[in-house]
Fold each of these.
Amino acid sequence: MRVLVAEDLYLLRDGLVRLIEAYGHEVVATAATGPETLDALRTWRPDVSVIDVRMPPTHRDEGLRAALDARAEVPGLPVLILSQHVERLYARELLADGSGGVGYLLKESVFEAEQFVDALERVAGGGTALDPAVIARLLSAGSPARGLERLTEREHTVLALMAEGLSNQAIGRRLFLSEGAIGKYTTSLFGKLGITDDQDGNRRVRAVLAYLEKT
Amino acid sequence: MGRPRGWAVAAAVGFVRACAVAAVTLLVPAVWAGAVALGIHWGAGNPWSWLLPLILVGTGTLALSGPVCRAVRFLVARWTGTDLPAGHRRPGPVGRLSTGYWWNGFSYERSRRDALLDQKWRIRWSDPATWRDLRFTAIAPFTAGLVAVLPPAGAAFAVLGLSGAGPAQRLAGVLALLLAVGSAPYAWRPVEPVAVRFLRPSPAMALADRVGELTAQRADVTVAQAAEIRRIERNLHDGAQARLVGLGLSLATAERLMDTDPEGARALMRDARTGAAASLAELRELVRGISPPVLSERGLADAIRALALDVALPVDVDVDAESGGVGGFPRLEAPVESAVYFGVAELLTNVVKHAGASHARVALAAGRDGSGAVAEVRDDGGGGAGFEAGGGLDGLRRRLAVFDGTLEVTSPPGGPTRVRMTVPCAFS
């Protein structure tokens, strides 16, 4: 894959580039500020980008904004946001256009290099990868969104793993169930959330979005 | 209620109030009259005949002026709602020095009792409020007191006249009755303007009060900040720093074992990695408590939206669209943003913990002049929230007071509860 790495701290940027190259992908460009990131996204249209939220010049949410702006121009342009903290608000904004190809992970997720690169490849393929920390905070907040209260406990679990970005096969492995059984659960929960026929990938994104929304 | 009946009630209430005002304001002149009567009774030959009444007038006036003014303040506040701050100076702390003597802010005394007594009198003499009260005690009888005495005096003359024999006496009695009844609803009223004019703290006293208030707030803030810094230091010291030491140790050991025991080295490396992840999680929690990242990245409106997402019940956030700025809200000074954010966080925590509500709503608007902010948290819970001393709401009110902010709570039993925070703007 052709990858863009946007991160202002040299050490981290360098580490990410090495890690991604070690797994046989090509880093086509790096960026260290918000405007640079947006330029690079426009110029290179990378298969996937790894973007830090906070960057110069303002040290606010430059990276996130660059990613959102680029996706407004190029719908579904795959981006993976890396941050020191995870906010549901940001996850929601990233997923809001419903076109998938979005990741939002904590920075320490790179410690598990294998899983990190896995997430990167999933996002490049149009899937989602949400940090388990976001999911955990969703579960602990305990105020269900519209339609979520109608889900069974098992459907909840499946939806949470779906939000992390796992495929039906991987969810099945995690829960010791067949892929077919998981398929039944996903169909039933799509029905309960009122998400109907289009491509499965987008249905998954919309289910996760429903999960992030609160009434 | 018919007009005549309403008027009768007003007259009756007014009569009682007039009697009260007359009794309070004429108390000191009554003492004077008593002293004069005593002097006349003893006659001019007796040296005591002028000395004792003089002493009586002086001490009586001094001793009674405080209680009289307190009573007038109480009555005016109760009847008209006009609040007249007393503005008396408060005594400072009295402490014992290493020499064994007591220091009361003015002088050294041998015992605590002496020190307190000395301090009390010095403050009383030097306090402008004492002299203002004395002045009012002298003025009130000849203004408010004179008017307020009309209904009771009229009633007394009416009783005397009507029980008299001659027609002239009866006529005088009827006139006195008319005067008493006619003036009853109004006679107590002059006490308010007179009290407002002569009992209000002077500008100098108001200024001294403000300085005292600010000093107390400064002390509050300093203590709170020092505690906060200590908490952060302790957290860093016991958490992240200790973990990093452990991390270095693991790595050093792994380096040693690389050649002899690669399997053990690998296990240590894994440990180091989990340690690093754990210290990051700890630091993240710490940072969130100091200043939530969303607040610095997005400002107040989005930070409160993010906060609402993390609360265990449905919370609507309305941001006043007129305010403008990023996320529909202007960026404010960091301390103000922080105060409002943590205030809303605390209020929402209260809603979850105490209110038993099913739903809450946060409304956020910019201040009228485009600076500062107004935030209101409403819930449909059981109500009954209040300011207990040392309670959460009281602490919040004190923290807001630093910015001249206010906290209003309406929480009738049975709900709903509405808490409104207003922070005009920082550091004016």
Amino acid sequence: MNVAVVVFPGSNCDRDVVKAIKYATGDEAALVWHGETELPGETDLVVLPGGFSYGDYLRCGAMAHTAPIMADVKRHADRGGLVLGICNGFQVLTESKMLPGALLVNRDLAFICRPIEISVERDDTAFTSGYEKGQVITIPIAHYEGRYHLPENELELLEERGQVAFRYSGGNPNGALNDIAGIYNEGGNVLGMMPHPERYSDRAVGGDDGLPVWLSIKRWIERTGA
Amino acid sequence: MDYSKAGLRKEEYDALKARLGREPNDLELQIMGVMWSEHCSYKSTKPLLRLFPKDGDRVLLGPGENAGVVDAGDGLGLAFKVESHNHPSAVAPYQGAATGVGGIIRDIMALGARPVASMDGLFFGDPEERKTQALADGVVKGVGGYGNCVGVPTVGGKTVYHESYRGNPLVNAFCAGLVPTDRMVSSQTASAGQKVLILGSKTGRDGIAGAAFASVELAEDGSGVPSIQIGDPFTEKLLIEACLELRDKDLLVSMQDMGAAGILSSSSEIAAKSGIAMTIDFDAVPLRAEGMEPWEIALSESQERMLLIVEPEKVDQVMAVAGKWELDCAVIGETEKGDHYRILWKGDTVADMPASVIGSDCPEIPWPSKRPENLEDRWNFDLDSLPLPENWNEEILNLLGSHSHRSRKEIFEQYDSMVQTNTVIGPGFPVSAVRIEGTDRLAVMSMEAQPFMCWLDPYNGSAEVVARSCRALAVAGAKPAGTTDCLNFPSPEKPEQFWTLEQSAKGMAEACSSLKCPVVSGNVSLYNETANGPILPTPLVGTVGFVENIEELLRSGDWSEGDRLFYVGMPNPRLDGGSYLLNKTGRIWGKPLDFDGELENEFILRAIETAKRRAASSGMPIAGGGLAVALAKEAGASGLGASISIPCPTRRDVLLFGEGGPRAVYSVPKNRLVLFRALWKGYAVTEIGQVGGDRLTLDNLVDLSVSEIRESWNL
């Protein structure tokens, strides 16, 4: 599969994503500088990685969503292409309105880095077919602004449409509404999640519950030829 | 201007005049005041630092550069160093700690290395006190705020609480980075005819005179506090990537980070160490404040700046890389033949001294030294006066939950310990381990400090600090390759305090020599005292070693059902100076064990073999809180109990809670028993029990559930 990992100034999980994809699938993902105006041709999956784009000095993701490359990322998503935003990447997706809602400062006003249990809400999407519905997996979080928020009526709609991808299941670390750890767009081709699947893709560094994310995506792409 | 205003003593001023052959002007005087401050010149400690062994099998670069480098194999070097940021953290906890992290990262970058792991040594006052809580919270948030953003994992550290650090906390930041040895960058390789560039943030008024501030005691009224440096981790992250790109495109001749005394120190050091002349034009320096005087530009400690030496024909390419990363970059001077170091400003020459004088050593200060008269009073702990515990369960749980041993997860979970996805062992264990990308090898590191022992017996206590870090590495399977030290002490001007510093350095030097663990880099932080008194003597080390692959790494907290348990080491620990005695009596007293190099080396050799040949499933060096705490932590972290019975040739509390000397607990799978016993044959080794169930029992004294252990420990 052809993967483009966008590098914003201040991204710091970009190389980790490349490494995880290589380990999981053997595929070499391309790093794409934020200043580019076009994704590489044939891109199947765009990953917006974790980190502190532009230092997060403004609202997290607020600067990054105006980066030149983002226009093409949106076009890619509009065409039904896959986009995965992890942590800061999730924040970029909400800021750019590719996903609804916002990520607020954690309930306890502290950065939290630790492995955490989440449940997989759907197993019929491009990103999660390698899991079983309801499966509880352990993947690390590492964020200061990860409390998912959405106005109540929109939240109901989100739930009705089955847009919740992952929920915190062993205690809610940040106060996110409905324990939400990750969500899809309406089309299911854009996923934003606070936990870092790339960090638990290799047992040598703690666990590999994140591995099925990459394998699911690869299988999906091969099957749909998307 | 009076020389004392520049921080120089009469002898130093006279020496300066003699070397210059004339009176310095005001700017030159200020320059030398900073260059010859304690922080930059080590004038009080140079003779002591000379005692440390510097050479070892794996040492590629010893002291003298921005960090030491050891051979990490496969053409890679591991650069590492620890540095203090104590006084700034006392005044501005968040920014002080944050810029401490930023500064040590730039030291590592200066060698052309990519920073791969950080650790932090934090020393705070009484954690029950609100002022300390607020200060500690600021420091922890500062370490995290910077380290998390810059993308370097904080994989371990050390936290100690004691009232002597009230008002004078210690923040010691460690960083390690990897560099291909053939692309290592030096600060000593400039030659004439090259350009001097400044890369990174603009220069402002922040942090002016920080080095001088770090070289005096903290005043109660806050006087003498300079404008504090402000950290910008986002710029640092860009700076890291830009420097690595410059390195990989072979655009650098030489590089130096700007730490204490900013442009002045970095440029004059390159000139002096490279043996060349240099002219710097202050009008070319990008400034962020208006109307800055030349001395302010010279001494500004604005963060996130690097000084580069570049061949003239490569300047455009350097500018292009800087532009890509949206960093300021400017040519501010050139290197020349000769020995002058010249500063131009508004068309005038405002300073012109021989580079060799600026880079020359400050006259050393032979501070008078006197053994404290009351030293023996600290030792007069009488074991017979201490009653045996009535309830052993309670004693163990109390100790686990005490400020000495309680899990530090409330601190380290605020740090990103996993970014770069190489962290194999993160915070909360005796060692940390990170994969070295592109190889099977792991770098194993341990940070250690034992200020209580060092106060009681600076020589043996400091040797114990080195030994503890080496033991922890050895149990994990790594031979110590080298160490970096931070000597945190109060003012050397009081003879008894200087004696303590001397003894401490001698003890460390003996241990490092004996254990073949060279000191490759380090830092000295003196004058850590307030009107309330001095800090405890606090030498800290960060020791590094390697294991060849992940199978040869022995973890702790990894018991398996049915494993046999072994206690290795002499059954002669002491309660003296240990956390049990402190917890029980509220006092730090007694005489710690003497350092025994032969015993340590025997232990280290066998421990490394044990890990390498996979003769055990889990290994825990016995340190603070003794055997009891080691067993409880192993049980708690493994989530398994054990039934233990142990012969006791001494008092039970001494055997269970005593500290000092090489000792460890191993769990051994049944099919490795023969090998394990063979490896430890001829050393003191006792089989003490078997892993299983959910309770930790010891003879008929201890009976604890694993869950209550975890709860007390706050796991």
Amino acid sequence: MEPIRKEELDDQACGSMAPKSKPCPRPKPGEAAGGCSFDGAQITLLPIMDAAHLVHGPVACAGNSWESRGSLSSGPSLSQYGFATDLGNNDIIFGGEKKLRDSIDYIAGRFTPPAIFVYSTCVTALIGEDMDAVCKEASDRLGIPIVPVNSPGFVGSKNLGNRLAGDALLQYVIGTGEPEQETPLGVNLIGEYNIAGEMWDIEKLMNQAGITLLSRITGDARYKEITWAHRAKANMVVCSRALLGLAKQMESKYGIPYFEGSFYGAKETTYSLRQMAFLLNDREMERRVDRLTEREENRLAHDLRPYRKILKGKKAVLYTGGVKSWSVISALKELGIQVVGVGTNKSSDEDVQRIADRVGDDTEYIPEGGASRIIKTVRERKADIMIAGGRNMYVAMKEQIPFVDINQERHKAYAGYEGLLRLAKELVDSMVNPIWKLASSPAPWDKEGSYDR
Amino acid sequence: MTVKRRSKPVSVNPLKIGQSLGGVLAMQGCYRAMPIVHGSQGCSAFPKALLTRHFREPIAVQTSALQEMDVIFDANRNLEEALNAVLSKHRPDIIGIIGTELTDVAGVDYQSMLKSYKRERNMRGGLAFSVTLPDFRGSLESGFSVTVEAMVDELIQQAGLRGQRNVNSRQITLLPGSYLTPGDVMELKEIVSSFGFEVIALPDISTSLSGHLLTGFSPLTRGGVPLDSMLQSLQSGLTIAFGASMERPARRLHNALGTPYKVFQGTMGLKASDELLNFLHQISGVPVPIRYCWQRENLLDCMLDAHFQFAGVSALAALEPDHLRSVSEWLEELGVEQKALVASCETPAVAEMEREVWVGDLDDAEVLGSGADLWISSSHGIAGAERIGAAFLPAGFPIWDELGSYMNVSVGYRGAMEWTNKAGNLLMRREAEHRESRVRHR
């Protein structure tokens, strides 16, 4: 894929365009799956590793959700602490603002975090807590940023929560600090959460090309680096649907050009790196990226050979959300795998267009959730493997379908060139495992004519 | 002894799990059941994710998917929609409506809505009930037992219409508490039935969450106690409850049907197992099966072998109330110093324990138990155990750093032996590591 030229970008007039986002569909009672906005906001902000994340509400919103995400840290781990104001009956009747204030003071005093993010929940939103005021007052008093995140669960889906978290960053964090040294070729990654350490592979590639990763938004981030995100020369939106609005607003506010890209698959990785170099507008950089991507692609092609032999002609059903629904297709195609079914449940119109660009005509679109629908597709299309998130993992196991987990709970990094190799290996390991034969053969006494006559 | 709390305004590293999750868990032990969590999407998504992670099984749960405007105007319209969808698509035998903190604070009356819904739809044959489980009260344990209580109530009501009761004195209803694993429930069923009793466990997660290979996907629960067995359990001559929290449902059966009941508060260790087996021996008149006599000796021998390992060792445990009490009794038998006992919430059972019990979070456990050699808690405790340098023994909910923990057995002589060996091995390895590091640094 060729990088888009500057003129085309201007033609599209991205900068002048307000975020064109259709409202997230209303979840259907009795048929809904997936998390709430509170969950989504946490997904986006918890990877800011050195900050404290305080949930204002009854304890279970934090108690049921802390330590459930696979974002890795290279150092500080305060964000892995679960903090909750733990509202009881009386707090709900008389108001929990005092408790919130005391909680913020306690955390600031004991853990001295660079910042505290405070999340509202359904209950605190319902009883009308003025979280913004408490945060502002405490912030002024304590001298550290205290960021209210107004994303109670009942305002909508996980995706909306991602966006609201992005709004909080834009309103309270980005633009409040300056980098320690000037970085003329700095790029921000937006919507990359360092699941299973993926970002580290990407950062290595960027460094090899001489591109500085200025702010991680937010995989393995430190609070400080997000404050100076507005000094970047370009933004790359890695998870396109959720935080696209953030990139668009940074473009209109700070004039930072952005592009949507992915690191799943060699082609997408190469495209993303080249697009970065292009937006940085540096000839030398473009040449360096070309050399790097060529070398990496060659090496990868060589290393992939044994896996491709096994994977060629295999069929997969892909069920995942947002950006992964199309970007993983490219990765699978490079491995010789045909995607015979793909979930479009959480994909925007743009995502669906990108899916259509990448798959054949006979690929089945699975617009709505429901494990039975996915399994039906696997069966009908005789797929060899199912690729989805942890929620569907055990459903696949019960049906004895080989499975690879690609969502936030997984433990393997699939981004970049190294990641594609890892994905290939994982797919092969999963498909050739002896368990499939063992599980499908009956016990000896259940075989016909097995007993002595 | 009184229960203590550390004074701090904020909960740090919560030990408490939402009550509604306990309700969802109880429903998993019923065949073809569907819990509907009346709240926002996350109120069901979080429990689903957490339970899936712990049991490594698909979990049946649905949501009324409340949004802001629904809460303000008419939350029950969503519930009705959810009920319609679930009933027409999946035809479950059992439905449990689980009210959350959101519906509680908003004052939604889903109890009477369910009543009129049942009247209008003429829901015969099935079992539908509602419970109120806001997260700002209780914990997983109370959510579980309250749900079982509501289930029992509904059963009694439904059977009441069908006439009289034929008491079957050879049949026993088991009420296993929320802290028991599918492996535990299986073991308890086996122990009780080895004395010649028919056993109906209510709920029975041992046949739904212990791993099965039934094909043909269904979003309802697979396995668990079927509705007709549940109704049949009303004929039982005796109820045995495990865990103090299960006394209330047992009392419900007693009050309505006159069924006598026995509560075992502790389920771990030699004494607790002795008590159970002797009780079964007394009421059945059947001698204790030879395999348990063997197991008892195995356990005593294992405790003798292990006592070198436990001498002078201190432990902390942070668990749900009933579980904490049970584990504390086992630690007592091993002669382990109990540095800190932390419960997720206060119940009469922990209040009457003879040891000092704290109600708090895992941060309290870390502070109070500093210097302990052994840390017993859910997987949330791993980081804390590392920070204070204690060996980590996973127990309770959720556990994600260990395969097959849902099949671990802690009850009976066999369970006590498994735990004693496991804890002893952890301490042995820890000691070896310390030795090694000494050699390296010289």
Amino acid sequence: MGAIFRPASRESSDRSAGDRLRHRQKVRRSIMDNIGDIVADESIIGRSGDQVVKVPIRGIKEYRFVHGENHQSVGEGASDDLAEGDVIARKPDSTEGKPGQAGEEPGVDYYETDITLDELIDMMFEDLNLPDLERKEMSSIESLRNTKRKGYRKVGLRVKLDRRRTARNKIRRSLSASSRATDAGGERMPFRAEDLSYRHRTTEIHKESNAVVFCIMDTSGSMGTTKKYLARSFFFMLYQFVARRYEKVDVIFLSHDIDAREVTEDEFFHKGESGGTFVSSGYNKALEIIVDRYHPDLWNVYAFHCSDGDNFASDNPDAIKSAQKLCDACNMFGYGEIKPQRASAYGNSLIDIFKAVTASNFRSVLIEGKEDVWPAFKAFLGAEEEAA
Amino acid sequence: MSHAGLDELREWDDRIVELVDAFGLECYAQEFEICDHNDMLGYMAYSGMPSQYPHWSFGKSFEKQKTLYDHGVSGLPYEMVINSDPSLAYLMRDNSLGLNILTMAHVYGHNDFFRNNSTFGDTEPQHTVARFKSHAERIRSYVEDPAAGPTAVEATLDAAHALAFNCRRNMSIRKTTRSEQLQRAIDIATPPADRNASIHAPRCKEDPDLSRIPLEPEPDLLLFIRDYNPYLAEWQKDILTIVHEQAHYFIPQMETKIMNEGWASYWHYQIMSELGLPEDLRLEFMINHNQVIRPHPGGINPYHVGFRIWQAIYEREEGDGPIDHRRRNAGHQSLFTARETDRDSSFLRRFLDRDLVRDLGLFEFAEKGRDTVVTRVADEQGWESVRDSLVASVGTGSLPVIEITDADFQGSRQLQLVHRYQGQELELPHARATMELLRTLWGRDVLLDTVLNQKPARLHCSEDGFSAEST
């Protein structure tokens, strides 16, 4: 007896919709939980928002008791010259963990998904209920923006003729004419001036508010890779936050040891530096650039400084003075102190010294590990809300 | 699919069935559902089941399959058969006629295997579809029940899924009841009758501790928790039962993967060879067949390994002359005996001889740091070790054996488990997460005795967190 053949039952066509939705919700939740780690890997500028990034997810693995890596496996297809001890595969370097990240989990433990940078950043700020930054009236720059539609006119340039609309006008007219004179049916109806319809546009003056973000980092000998990595995470979030609120955001990277220099993003994060620290040099350089290029009357200025808190004692009075000046020039000036595992617990680090800075738009946070970056960032902006 | 197309499939099906009967295969009635590739992706996510309860892991599985398919990493399976009576299988209407004919021939091989292999003895295939439907209905009702609700149901399912395969592996060995275990404990403790009792002192009798729960180490974690955690709600107990039943249903398929895929491939090959295919279909068949049973270098392709072993079983009796399955010769007989009595582990142990190990190019490898290193090749000294490693890794053999030894550890209702260590340590992050889920079901602390860094160790999961200490 032969088999029964039947077409698929239609009701089962999208049976997995609910389970897929629930899975996506969990992926999203997991991304939110790991957002601090994820953004730490991204460049601050120069990436377009629709770029797809790979996101590691830890939350939605399915767990059960399994054997570790110490077991033997069997494969097929060995050639005759395969011998004991031959290396047949090697894990790529990338699974080794990122610099500064503890490698407590094997690389294979990641479940990855793709997401655009924009989505990622939207999610990042979605839950936060972050405050709107206070914008300066004066710093709105008037610019001629593209033209905007504003209805139709009977006269205009030939290129702006709306042919569809014009034809409709003619048909309407001819129909009303034919209803009045029934014998006019077969006659050709030419276009008349009254049929013509031109698109009308006006130019708009748009007020743009511009901002500049100063990323100042201590690149003295004591700022190792881990600290730079933490600083990068912090700067990334700050930049993204500011960038979401202004039309145009400039970023200035300043690195300093005893002297300060303006550098590219790449140099900022990757170039090893050495030497001692004069924090004031970084602040003074920023002030210089503000006076030269970003007058506070025209720009919203944000400055953030990351350091391990280690400054030459002799520079401390100058540092406080410069910090005060920066506060005067900026919408907000923030200081993040990076001390992985309380590495250098000198009694008088900058975060203590900066308690002398009294300006209301000054913030400081302490970051001890990668898990602190996100909470520190939230606390940072939360504080502004309080102060505002 | 057009009527003409369907009629064509029916004609080929009739001819296939004729050969199936002539070759001595015994199948359940067969039903084919004609679906498109979206339906197929859906069926894959649910192991082919027409109905299944809702859980996000099926959504995850769907997304993964779809991503792989969309990116061309993997195609769709050309066959999916459910162990049910009547047997259910799927044909894709976008597939060519040749591929659908091959699929049908392959499906009959699985169908025969499900019906005749002893491992499937108690899977009750006549109730498969209804049972999965009932499971789905029950769990949906708990989701809608305010006393349970979607969040709690999901949490229970998550935990149950994590433990589902920690259960008896050989379903043909009957589960002993508590009273049988009691009797056994007493029997063991009772000294045998001693004819010379008058001559020497009586052997002292030790009373077994009959209050202990469980009396014997218990491999069925979900059932044990269901029966011995009095704080579980009825709906939770039912979910544990459902998840256990489904694992129970799928385990025979895991335990016979190589045999079963090999068997279906062996028979589709025989059937297709005698079907009198026109030249173009024959060519397409050869291409598809070679695609399916090609070796996966560095891994194991069960279709390939299984196919080669079944071929070798026949050849061992009959030599490599032309195969004629209409004559029931010794080769044919050997095939049918093995298909009835073996499971992958015994099958490989019995039939994977030195020549086959070498012909298949089997070798053993392990991770050493970041490298994957060959540890054994199939030479004179190594081939048995290679075979034994393969035997140990098939089916649920790759999953660690973990049993409950005490439900009232130190008198505080802590759950004590033991990992039957056989040279392979547990992966710690997984063990930790799984124990946390186990703790949510048991409601008290959970301990697991295992081996870490080659030293005995105890993992402890409590309210305060997780710890691993050497003992």
